[in-house]
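Quick review question:
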């Protein structure tokens, strides 16, 4: 997948950034650099230089105009459980630490420090009292070794817990899959309901599975689509849903866009701003990481050549999950000059943000 992730490395990173969309559901800057040499057996990151936003003058000293200061907090994505039972990313500010992977898991524990940060309707995923150590292997597998309290969960939450752990840890650039241990013992299944985990789980295993429709496994593939939900306060956020799409006789990107247009199942509690009248006029074209989508006029709002930002967000999040897609651009009837409702020129490449669901409810 081509989703952007945070570096999990012992080296300081000086990363350039591209401004995406400010605050709200999307937030922060997208990281542009990549480390080639990633140390083995580490669970920490020295990310002060990449996250303070401070500039460096020619003398090598940091400055923000008058006086540079390292922020005491950093933004991290934590996958929590919402009121509908979905596993959803929430971007929260955590204290700066070298042990970022361990900290991220500790903030998934009920009764822990995350309790003061939980958005309305969300709950932590790990049982109270759970402790954890982590170890990053050379092949990109991170081992999460939990204490015995880890097994004190309801079996109905087992897959949600596995997904939350996996998607929280794979936000880091050099983490590809997650291996579970309990009290130093490797697990091939989860401890309560025996969900298979083999030698590790990755984002390819999916999240929030849509099982509403039966599909032919031989002629379908799993994709993660992003739909919208609302908190109890009416604040929107994006929910990833893994569905199997029938690709027989269909171009892959067109099939994914069609699935977004068709929307979530009626019983899902999720919504989508794409109407059924919206349609692609041509097959999407991928060049140099940018995917161009040419729609009919039904994608436009009521005020000229403007497209709802929530539609753009859903397309960006969904399509940049696909290998090789770094950004999307939208045209209508082959013509550009389109704007999102937040003022973004969406006929130019729009990249995936580093952080999602940054609004506080």
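Suggested answer, residue by residue:
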């Amino acid at each position: 997948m081509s989703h952007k992730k945070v570096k999990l490395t012992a080296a300081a990173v000086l990363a350039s950034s591209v401004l995406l969309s400010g605050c709200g559901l999307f937030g922060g800057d997208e990281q542009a650099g990549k480390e080639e040499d990633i140390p083995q057996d580490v669970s920490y990151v020295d990310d002060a230089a990449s996250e303070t936003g401070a500039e460096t003058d020619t003398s090598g000293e940091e400055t923000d105009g008058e006086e540079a200061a390292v922020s005491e907090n950093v933004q991290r994505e934590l996958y929590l459980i919402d009121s509908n039972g979905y596993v959803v990313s929430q971007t929260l500010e955590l204290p700066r630490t070298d042990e970022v992977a361990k900290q991220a898991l500790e903030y998934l524990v009920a009764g822990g420090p995350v309790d003061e940060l939980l958005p309305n309707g969300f709950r932590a995923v790990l049982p109270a009292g759970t402790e954890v150590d982590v170890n990053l292997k050379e092949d990109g597998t991170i081992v999460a070794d939990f204490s015995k309290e880890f097994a004190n969960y309801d079996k109905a939450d087992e897959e949600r817990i596995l997904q939350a752990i996996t998607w929280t840890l794979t936000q880091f650039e050099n983490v590809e899959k997650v291996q579970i241990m309990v009290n130093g013992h490797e697990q091939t299944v989860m401890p309560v309901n025996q969900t298979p985990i083999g030698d590790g789980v990755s984002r390819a295993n999916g999240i929030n599975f849509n099982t509403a429709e039966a599909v032919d496994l031989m002629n379908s593939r799993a994709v993660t689509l992003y739909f919208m939900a609302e908190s109890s306060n009416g604040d929107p956020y994006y929910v990833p849903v893994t569905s199997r799409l029938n690709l027989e006789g269909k171009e892959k990107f067109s099939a994914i866009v069609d699935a977004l247009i068709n929307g979530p199942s009626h019983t899902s509690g999720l919504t989508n701003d794409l109407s059924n009248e919206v349609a692609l006029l041509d097959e999407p074209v991928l060049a140099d990481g940018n995917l161009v989508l040419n729609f009919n006029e039904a994608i436009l709002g009521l005020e000229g050549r403007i497209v709802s930002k929530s539609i753009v967000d859903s397309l960006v999040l969904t399509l940049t999950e696909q290998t090789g897609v770094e950004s999307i651009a939208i045209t209508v009837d082959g013509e550009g000059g389109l704007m999102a409702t937040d003022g973004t020129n969406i006929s130019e490449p729009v990249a995936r943000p580093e952080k999602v669901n940054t609004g506080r409810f």
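Why it works: The chain has five helices and 20 strands. The first strand starts at residue 17 and ends at 19.
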